UniProtKB/TrEMBL annotation:
Residues of the Aminotransferase class V domain: 115-367
Domain Molybdenum cofactor sulfurase middle: residue ranges: 400-519
One of the record's GO molecular function terms: transferase activity
Name of this chain's protein: Molybdenum cofactor sulfurase
Coiled-coil segments on the chain, per record: none
Record-linked Pfam families: Aminotran_5, MOSC_N
Family matches, as SUPFAM superfamilies: MOSC N-terminal domain-like (SSF141673), PLP-dependent transferases (SSF53383)
Length: 584
């Protein structure tokens, strides 16, 4: 919802050539998207140091606070966060006034001065800080109610300064339902409603969620108390955790955490209740942020990982170049929000801890102790040189394969064999088929747990795959031919993680058999026809056509691992034995 408000600001303020849209590198993705709506406007991106250099000193101001009164002045817009949602650093609110008085004119390259307006992103600031709009007067302020009290999602507010913001917003062009007093269909004539807020409420507003906002604000006020006190508590917790992490060392003395900070956590006015970090192993290698999140999830600790929709701060702190980021996307296939957390042992994101009014020192201790317990190392392992670890070196080890399981149908049961053919994408016939629902989605055990009861038996000499349901001898098995005819009916299935699968429909008979046994109408069995190796270049880009597990073609485990797991779960009510099938 805040993104929608940014669009309104952009549409109203900056339209003409010679205007400037200035923004800090440390900004939300929604702010970066504003520049695409202003093709004729000059973009100006300021690093943290550049912004401080430009805006910390007040330029000469006019008596009425309006720096540029000439008709030749161009409207320009400056957007920055009150608090970074990446590192928690707080940016000076006095920048609002210094910007209004022309502090950025020297960076625009324009001969004509600008009439500057400010958009303050307070979404990460107001949940734990007091924002005094009587003292600081931005033209526009964006807030998110979801970030304040967790509900409702998709609803925020744009606060507009009556004196400076409202007049410029009257230039809005687009209108939707409920925003006009009259509009003609055949002729270009319309009249906006007089009230400013009605002019911007295109379509039916989310009035049910709006009702919840009042209750949320009341609850926040009752539980949290004064926001100035909340700011002090959350800062204190962040400083406490920062101190512990900064001093944490592995057994060999190497640092255990890499903390990404813009301050030394010494002053509440410059730092919020956020700690951003990555975990390091004793040999200096990074632990992927997904591994950290998966571990803390087990202990009920809620963390956020990735770049947090702040690509500028993420790139700056992680030290990536523009060329590296483009290569990661174009060649390797890494995109925002995916599972790739390490590329060539360099993190693509980080882990963020955000403290709220309900957080306590014991919460910080629990997180810290959990991370130390799980990732602290006494004797560091040598960094893996993947170029030197050849098959010849591993052949010296006394290892042998005891059991082989192949899964011909995705998410169904396994076929056990003593030997099997290897192909570029993994085992021959492994995940070569999939059960597709009547909505076109490839079924997994998350949607249908009974898929595990469908067991395939492969007969390569006869060229058949026989399906048995739940080892029921009374149930008539289903025989499927391994011979695929390209003339058969083609089908397309959707894979849960965004890819698609093209294959051949195996016919009505097996479809009815599956639908009957799984008690789901409309199921189809399709066989993938476009098999490609999942890794097709030196950077390891994944091929979305692969029907395999999430990331790899093989899953290898050992008997010693099974025995260890059985020992760890000895008090559990489940008897797991040494069943390798549990690791499908």
């Amino acid at each position: 919802m805040c993104a929608h408000y940014y669009i309104n600001c952009t549409d109203a303020v900056c339209r003409s050539r010679g205007s400037t849209f200035a923004y800090t590198e440390d900004n939300h993705t929604s702010v970066l998207g504003m520049r695409e709506l202003m093709p004729m406007v000059n973009p100006l991106c300021l690093s943290r140091n550049e912004a401080h250099e430009a805006l910390d000193k007040m330029p000469p101001s006019s008596s009425d606070g309006n720096y540029c009164r000439s008709a030749s002045c161009r409207n320009s817009l400056f957007a920055y966060p009150a608090q970074s949602n990446f590192s928690g650093t707080k940016y000076p609110l006095k920048w609002i006034e210094t910007c209004r008085n022309g502090a950025l004119d020297q960076y625009t390259g324009n001969r004509v001065k600008s009439r500057w307006y400010t958009v303050l992103d307070a979404s990460a600031y107001v949940p734990t800080n007091h924002l005094d709009l009587g003292k600081y007067t931005p033209d526009f302020v964006a807030v998110s109610f979801y970030k304040m009290f967790g509900y409702p999602t998709g609803l925020g507010a744009l606060l507009v300064h009556n004196k400076t913001g409202v007049p410029v917003l009257r230039r809005k062009k687009y209108f939707g339902g409920g925003t006009v007093e009259v509009v003609l269909a055949r002729n270009r004539h319309h009249v906006f409603k007089k009230n400013v807020h009605e002019k911007f409420e295109d379509g039916t507003i989310d009035f049910l969620s709006v009702i919840a906002v009042g209750h949320g604000l009341d609850t926040l006020r009752a539980l949290a108390g004064p926001m100035r006190a909340v700011a002090g508590r959350t800062f204190g917790l962040a400083a406490y955790l920062y101190g512990r992490m900064s001093g944490a060392r592995h057994g060999n003395g190497s640092p255990m955490f890499r903390v990404y900070a813009d301050t030394a956590y010494r002053c509440e006015s410059t730092q919020g209740g956020v700690v951003n970090f990555n975990v390091l192993r004793a040999n200096g290698e990074y632990v992927g942020y997904n591994e950290v999140k998966n571990v803390t999830d087990i202990y009920g600790i809620v963390l956020r990982v990735g770049c947090f929709c702040n690509p500028g701060a993420c790139q700056s702190h992680l030290g990536h170049t523009d060329q590296e980021l483009r290569r990661n996307q174009e060649v390797i296939g890494h995109v925002c929000g995916d599972h790739i957390d390490l590329i060539e042992n360099r993190p693509t994101g980080s882990v963020r801890v955000s403290f709220g009014y309900q957080s306590s020192e014991s919460d910080a201790d629990t997180l810290y102790n959990t991370l130390v317990e799980q990732f602290w190392q006494n004797n560091p392992s040598k960094p893996v040189d993947r170029q030197q670890n050849t098959i010849n070196e591993y052949s010296k080890m006394d290892l042998h394969v005891s059991r082989i399981f192949v899964y011909p149908i995705k998410s169904c049961g396994a076929y056990e064999t003593d030997e099997w053919q290897l192909e570029p994408y993994g085992f021959q016939y492994d995940r070569n088929w999939a059960v597709v629902s009547n909505t076109g989605m490839c079924m997994t055990q998350m949607e249908e747990p009974k898929l595990c009861l469908v067991r395939p038996y492969m007969d390569l000499q006869k060229g058949t795959m026989t399906l048995v349901y739940a080892e029921n001898k009374d149930e008539v098995p289903m025989v499927v031919s391994l011979d695929t005819k390209l003339s058969d009916t083609k089908k397309t299935g959707k894979i849960c993680w965004g890819g698609s699968l093209e294959g051949i429909d195996c016919g009505d008979e097996v479809a009815e058999w599956l639908s009957w046994n799984l008690d789901r109408p409309g199921l189809r069995l399709i066989r993938c026809t476009s098999r490609k190796p999942p890794v097709h270049n030196k950077y390891g880009k994944l091929d979305p056509k692969v029907l395999g597990a999430n990331q790899c073609q093989y899953l290898l485990t050992t008997k010693s691992t099974l025995k260890w797991l059985q020992h760890e779960m000895e008090n559990d009510i489940t008897e797991i034995g040494e069943d390798s099938l549990l690791f499908r």
